[in-house]
Amino acid sequence: MDISQPKFLLIDGDGRVLGTCLDAEGVFVEAAEGDGPVTVEILGCLPSQRLRDYLGSSNRYRLRNPLWLEGLRMLDAAGEPLADFWVSEIIEWRPSRLGSERADIIAKWGYDSPQAGTRHIWERWRTARPDQINQWAVYDSEGRREWLTLVGRSRFRQMGPVDRPAGRVYCLDGAHVTDMTSFYLAVGEAVNGPGGYFGWNLDALNDCLCGGFGATAPFTLVWSDSQVARRAPSTLLEQVDHSPTFFDAIQTIFAGLEVSVVLR
């Protein structure tokens, strides 16, 4: 383990850093089999003075001065924030074998922890952010859904891209658009580049088209290889109770917000 490079930050309810942490066990969890709390072990945490005072105080002091937590922030290999996870309460701690000034902390883990089977996707993002479009295309449907989850939760996305002027042309590569998940991945990259976000369901897509997510309507979306989606045996073309298909619904949303979709 590289003790010079923290992987996580422990954040309080005001967004302040309580500690820089070298690693954590239990971030990726198996499907829950019971209703008991899930815990995460935060390893090699170098505490701030505030956290150090809290851990070294009496039970009475801690009851009178609760430490409100916001979460555990995962960092990428460059030390930049990648995603936040909810952590509710510190329940145990001990001196860490990773350094005399460090502590290992056990905390109650949140409801938003990723599944163990998706670790490889998170590690890929943590090691190197996407730098080319369609890097998600090698995964199956479950892997693509997790990639979209990471796109949506990425701290990079949450900082909010600056809207470009109206009238732009965006190119959607439809070569791998075979279901709803891959559409959202492709349109996100069309507007905001590799790993980009532009919605994850129809309501979110509508919100993105109203501004604040990188593009300003009216604009043109050129959808290349659109026949891949139109021929895909998937939910893109399924019709339920005479309602519009997903393929039709997204085009209706685009048209309603002055986005011209060119199918190629």
General description of the model:
There is one protein chain. The protein has 264 residues and is an alpha+beta fold. Helix content is 29%, strand content 25%. The protein contains nine helices and ten strands. The chain has helices at residues 49-55, 59-64, 119-127, 141-153, 155-158, 180-192, 202-209, 226-231, 246-256; strands at residues 8-12, 17-25, 39-47, 69-75, 81-85, 87-95, 103-109, 169-173, 219-224, 259-263. The strands form two sheets. It has a seven-stranded antiparallel β-sheet. A hairpin with a 4-residue loop joins strand 1 and strand 2. Helix 4 (141-153) packs across helix 6 (180-192) and helix 7 runs parallel beside helix 9 (246-256). The protein is elongated. The model has no long low-confidence stretch (mean pLDDT 88).
Considering DSSP H and I runs of 4 or more, what fraction of the residues is helical? 25-40%
Which structural class matches the secondary elements?
alpha+beta
Strand content: 25-35%
Report, as a whole number of angstroms, the end-to-end distance: 49 Å
Query: Numbering strands along the chain, what is their spatial order in the largest sheet?
Result: 5-4-1-2-3-7-6
Number of helices: 9
Q: What is the average per-residue confidence, as pLDDT, rounded to a whole number?
A: 88
Unreliably modeled segments? none
